[in-house]
Amino acid sequence: MRKNIVAGNWKMNLSIAEASNLVETIIDAAPALRENHVVVFCTPFTHLQTIAKIIDSKGHSQFALGAQNCNDQIAGAFTGEISVNMLKEMGVTYVIIGHSERRQLFGESSDFLKKKVDTLIAANMQILFCCGEPLEIRNAGEQNQYVQKQLSDSLFHLDAAQMKNHITIAYEPIWAIGTGVTASTQQAQDMHAHIRHVLSETYDSQLAADISILYGGSCNAQNAEDLFANEDVDGGLIGGAALKSETFLPIISAMH
Questions:
Q1: 243 vs 10: CA distance, rounded Å
Q2: Catalytic site residue 136?
Q3: CATH (domain of 137)
Q4: I want to staple 137 with a disulfide (CB 3.0 to 4.6 A). Which of 133, 166, 197, 237 is the partner?
Q5: How far apart are alpha carbons 228 and 235 in whole angstroms?
Q6: Tell me: the pLDDT tens digits for 44-93?
């Protein structure tokens, strides 16, 4: 059975005190999680050590610590960057890569993301790999090909075991990130089903069935239940709604 995952991507938000209170509140108030449920807190780098201690103190194995990015190199003269070994040392198990903001604002290419994938897998980390199309691609009806190329360019050099053991895909339509616009449940299901079909064609149907695919475009407390009810939607990569317990807890509860 594949995992249902809700990951909160805090981006550049919250003080350490605010973050600590948020995580403690969520862990204490969260509903009973099934064996295949995982909740990931993807915090700013400065918060990781503090949040790791809180998660450890609560003793809940289904709550995990995530980072929002990392460099493709293990060490070196890369001012301002963070390596995978630094993240592991602080208890990080999940890392987001390929987020549209990293691609657009910081010019991260598919080839650079491919290198990050290899570095993270070598370090035995879990990868939340983001993909998704901008509005002009959606309007042109070319979203399927666009997303497939993102996956192919950065992931499909991996063998089946590496894909199954390390990769979670997060589909984030760029036109629905931070805009308040959400893909319809049908649009979300259609793209998730397409991604699963591409995985099946590239690898096999069993691997396609095993990989979790999350929705990452303005998912909130009001629409999570409907989105997660889709056959191929296995949870969400949550932005703004992950910053408050009253909006994040209902999303956790919506996992099936």
A1: 6
A2: no
A3: 3.20.20.70
A4: 133
A5: 6
A6: 999 999 999 999 999 888 999 999 999 999 999 999 999 999 999 999 99
Q: Report CA-CA distances (Å) from 70 to 99, 114, 248.
A: 12, 12, 25
DSSP 32: P
| Residue 99 known to be catalytic | yes
DSSP class per residue in 178-224: SSS----HHHHHHHHHHHHHHHHHHS-HHHHHHS-EEE-SS--TTTH
Catalytic pick from 47, 99, 192, 194?
Answer: 99
For the whole model, what pTM was predicted? 0.97
Q: How far apart are CA 203 and CA 200, in angstroms?
A: 5
Q: How many domains does the chain have?
A: 1
pLDDT (tens digit per residue) in 152-205: 999 999 999 999 999 999 999 998 877 777 789 999 999 999 999 999 999 999
